[in-house]
Fold this sequence. Notes:
Strand order of the largest sheet: 3-4-5-2-1-6
Shape: flat
Largest sheet: 6 strands, mixed
Distance between the termini: 20 Å
Radius of gyration: 29 Å
Amino acid sequence: xxxxxxxxxxxxxxxxxxxxxxxxxxxxxxxxxxxxxxxxxxxxxxxxxxxxxxxxxxxxxxxxxxxxxxxxxxxxxxxxxxxxxxxxxxxxxxxxxxxxxxxxxxxxxxxxxxxxxxxxxxxxxxxxxxxxxxxxxxxxxxxxxxxxxxxxxxxxxxxxxxxxxxxxxxxxxxxxxxxxxxxxxxxxxxxxxxxxxxxxxxxxxxxxxxxxxxxxxxxxxxxxxxxxxxxxxxxxxxxxxxxxxxxxxxxxxxxxxxxxxxxxxxxxxxxxxxxxxxxxxxxxxxxxxxxxxxxxxxxxxxxxxxxxxxxxxxxxxxxxxxxxxxxxxxxxxxxxxxxxxxxxxxxxxxxxxxxxxxxxxxxxxxxxxxxxxxxxxxxxxxxxxxxxxxxxxxxxxxxxxxxxxxxxxxxxxxxxxxxxxxxxxxxxxxxxxxxxxxxxxxxxxxxxxxx
Length: 451
């Protein structure tokens, strides 16, 4: 165990108070004796039983009718003795039972302390601990699936395979340094092949980081275009809300507006922006600059055009700086008549036909196709293995890859072994094998109390 042995017993509510049911959990060596003292029902391992929660000193008073389950160590979430109480979601009940447990010597848990104890007791590694928080915060099916895969050891397993290869190679290098005349040439040749394989595996994991971050944080999709092209109407249509104010007055939107939605199982951060045009108004210019910045940092840009008007020279000039992450939407197909073909033909001189769509935010025409195009553009696609979704993991993987590249270029066996050892240290930081207390504390500080 990295810290001094934990001897106290902790407790916390794991659900918000005020609903129908509140769940309180406890972990530590005193769990059985405390549960026996306060619960009138039968106590059987891993079986949910009905009884009353009551005080322990005279006059004995019932506090709630509850369901309780006891988990003996080591077969529990934390690896310690645990119990959980299903209480009525009353503030008064929660307060009285909290006071009861504190009077019996239990301590209110710190944020993330249950999961931290699970890590310290070997029930999970740091990748899985990170995944607990990712699963709690997941907004879509695919982000939940990615977090669950990590919680079940998908990423840890891939890292373990790389570590095994590097540890074996490090052992052979150590032997070669002890017996250079007999082993060095053969070992160096084998080691180089192993290191190159491991570098390729790390590159695959690092490249999955972009896909993983999208699933974890959401793809940033920014709507830009001239005033009154229908940007706010598109946001309202895609989200099914009236989040953005829509009027016939140009320049209604002067700042960015953000809304979350689920597109094909991928979380999306949809951002409406101020209209792009030449302006001498200070506030408008600030909004325009902010819109440009949002577009520069987006995974996908949707550029809107008013189908009732031929694109201006200002709009045409803007097309020259577009990247491959841009979709083009000609709006107002319900009212623009034959003008739509003129607008399309003008734009097709500058943009790919497969990325140009005709839509109507008013009638919904073309919005289904636009949604498909958005999903196609931001989709993380199918992965042959676990996705890396955490910035800390990506940073450690990149450092490990750099050390292995240095090992390949090292002129001597001892320098090669030194760089290989550093790579193993960085991989160990991901899973917690070599992580320091500061890293561990930082991870669990993000958790809420009761998790």
